[in-house]
């Protein structure tokens, strides 16, 4: 059935292994982030085969799927108070920034007779999650008094919201904060989680500060690129995930609509250019499944024209391939495309071992 998301596990394993080996040279461990593919267990297991020692996801529902895989599980999104019981049950470690939530985790950990590890997130400028630098010591002072909780380390997030690129100076701040905590509280924190795939360019160029011990990597594994500048990582694949969609209509039609133009089905006003008659294919996939801007046709002569809820319109006028109704058009995917196709129940998932 189509549309179809095809996943090549061998390419994923090789990507994972390449990045794990790259980080190991700098004494950095990799958390394999599974959220982009909704934690499909076979894919997560392949990450482990590639060398990741922790699996991380933003959603407890996804971590539940991974309980049979014998590595620690990390909750990446700051826990909701309403999910504290499940956080303790299904996550071995979580990222935190609110002392009230950490206290709730402590109470629940005692109930479940567990020790739950946490990483205290520090906001170093990207303005998403994290305590401010000046608030770190007062919060740690409270955390170390809690039962059922073990402060394992500190971390930061960059690029995801504020687009702040990790630099040696920023990550050196994180290492210094860890050293200050260790000194004041006589601790030996072993995790300094220095961000995500956007920090990889520092690893590649030998610029990441000594003392960063962990990176949380998703996009670089699935797409083979770092995310600070979007550069490809040598010896990786960018087609681990591909989308296949079927042609349901193929006709020559004008390129400019006829009649009075208003809003489209999503309340937007589109701008059209009259380019004469073109050969247009309609594919049975739409915005409910994937954003058109996240698609890269593998036939480079195909042009994406537009989409609605359930249809994608492409211009095949310049293609050398003689497309017919029922034929399949293949796409590489950007990160958002992998995420939405993995999430859509209308997109078939096919996993290939090689």
TrEMBL record:
Cofactor: pyridoxal 5'-phosphate
Protein name: Alanine racemase N-terminal domain-containing protein
Residue ranges constituting the Alanine racemase N-terminal domain according to the UniProt record: 7-222
InterPro entries, per database record: Ala_racemase, Ala_racemase_N, PLP-binding_barrel
Pfam families the record matches: Ala_racemase_N
PANTHER family xref list: ALANINE RACEMASE, LYSINE RACEMASE
Species the sequence originates in: Thermoanaerobacter wiegelii Rt8.B1
GO molecular function terms noted in the UniProt entry: alanine racemase activity; pyridoxal phosphate binding
């Amino acid at each position: 059935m189509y549309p179809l998301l095809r996943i090549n596990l061998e390419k994923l394993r090789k990507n994972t292994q390449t990045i794990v080996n790259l980080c190991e040279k700098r004494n950095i461990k990799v958390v394999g982030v599974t959220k982009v593919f909704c934690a499909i267990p076979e894919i997560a297991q392949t990450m482990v085969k590639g060398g990741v020692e922790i699996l991380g996801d933003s959603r407890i529902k996804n971590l539940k799927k991974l309980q049979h895989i014998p590595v620690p599980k990390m909750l990446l999104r700051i826990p909701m108070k309403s999910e504290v019981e499940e956080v303790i049950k299904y996550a071995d470690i979580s990222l935190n920034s609110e002392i009230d939530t950490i206290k709730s985790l402590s109470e629940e950990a005692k109930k479940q007779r567990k020790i739950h590890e946490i990483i205290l997130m520090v906001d170093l400028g990207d303005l998403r999650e994290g305590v401010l630098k000046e608030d770190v010591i007062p919060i740690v002072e409270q955390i170390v008094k809690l039962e059922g909780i073990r402060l394992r380390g500190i971390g930061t997030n960059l690029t995801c919201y504020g687009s702040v690129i990790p630099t040696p100076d920023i990550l050196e701040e994180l290492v210094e904060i860890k050293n200050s905590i260790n000194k004041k509280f006589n601790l030996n924190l072993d995790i300094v989680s220095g961000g995500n795939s956007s920090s990889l360019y520092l690893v590649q160029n030998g610029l990441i500060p000594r003392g960063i011990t962990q990176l949380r990597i998703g996009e670089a594994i699935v797409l083979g690129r770092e995310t600070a500048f979007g550069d490809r990582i040598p010896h990786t694949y960018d087609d681990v995930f591909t989308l296949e969609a079927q042609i349901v209509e193929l006709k020559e039609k004008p390129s400019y609509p006829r009649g009075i133009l208003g809003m489209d089905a999503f309340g937007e006003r589109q701008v059209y250019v009259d380019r004469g008659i073109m050969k247009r294919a309609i594919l049975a996939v739409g915005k409910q499944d994937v954003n058109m801007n996240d698609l890269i046709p593998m036939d480079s002569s195909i042009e994406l024209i537009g989409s609605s809820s359930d249809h994608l319109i492409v211009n095949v006028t310049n293609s050398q391939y003689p497309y017919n109704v029922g034929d399949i058009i293949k796409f590489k995917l950007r990160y958002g495309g992998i995420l939405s196709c993995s999430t859509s129940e209308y997109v078939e998932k096919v996993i290939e071992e090689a």
